[in-house]
Amino acid sequence: MKANSALSSNKKETWGGGGVKPFGSSYGKMMMWFFIVSDALTFSGFLAAYGLTRFKFIDSWPIADEVFTHVPFVHGDYPMIYVAIMTFILIVSSVTMVLAVDAGHKMQKNKVAWYMFATIIFGIIFVGSQAWEWNTFINGSYGAVKTSEGKVLQFVNADGKQIALADFVTNKRTDRREQHTRKNGLWFVEEGTIPTYSVDQIITAYNTHPEIQVRTELITDKKQKTILSREKGALELAKTKLVVEGANLEVNEYGNTIFANLFFFITGFHGFHVFSGILINIIIFFNVVVGTYEKKGHYEMVEKVGLYWHFVDLVWVFVFTFFYLV
Amino acid sequence: MSHAHESNTKKIWIVLTILSVITGVEVWLGIIKPDFLHLSNFLGTSWLNWIFIILTLVKAYFIAWSFMHLEGEKKWFRRAIVWTAIFLICVLVSLLLTEAGYIYDTLGPLVKW
Questions:
Q1: What confidence score (pLDDT) does residue B83 get?
Q2: Any CB–CB contact under 8 A between B31 and chain A?
């Protein structure tokens, strides 16, 4: 009666569940599934927190189409296109993974190795894309100002299209502010990067360009950001205390601070999952190549890492929807 | 394993096509944003958002059932995974979103635009 006794720990098969197979599933596979369930709950916690924050600021949340508009090597506004490509890359990597598992069932070692290799490559491309996305997000593309009330003001041209500070601030900087470095000041004091333009400079430029208008975060009935009249814009601009270029954890040019924080947190956590997935895939890839599973007689390990990899894809499907589409 | 030697290659390509088409439709809708869907309201959000959410769940179904091979697992193993996750996520999301609505109703009027 083995059922009532603890499994002896010096037996090799303990790690395989001692030969017991509840639900006809191997110990490793079952535990991978239970890990995935718990990890899914972690991610839903994050996404639900995103939902909570968004509904809390439902009338002023940044519009994703206006934030994520860039495609590498291409100029112009292409909302969503690049994330769609990233999504597609991840789905394709899922397919190569499932093909590797399929080849594993047929004990085709070389095929498994090649499909694993393809999966790793697509994974690396995805992480690289995410890094590019982060870089673009952090550097920003337009620049904005922040008022003493904590509101972010952006600038639009006569067509109502957002324009960059560099597009209309052409007057000289008058406050003689210079970036403090160790060379030109106190060597033991450091300063973060100062904005390209000063507040006064932007207000002067606004006054000399009658076609420029100020846009606030408030969302209208038409689900667009509110554009203020010239006079109202000037009143709001008078409260400006900070020039914002790009994004960090304290302030960002897109709107609510917590929008950028959630972006970094959720896509970062997902990106970390992809990164560890790639590492695990590489380990398994080498195991396949040296014939570990050929000797074992089955490729179940490929199936288990496959589960993890598909889960990463599954999470991205939700991140894509809730961060970029909804 | 019963499915040890059958090849699923053809099915895999079909699922890839389905997932790509759904993603394509989502992106296309996300770009054109037809007003009658985008500016509508149903149960707290627009019809467009509901379409996105439903399409996402369809994609999730295909990934879990086909790629992660849930369809081949024993019925109660599958249920232990899917029901647990769905139930807990539903609880979490309903609690947080209800709370979020309350926070907005309370704090929203305090913000001057």
A1: 96
A2: yes
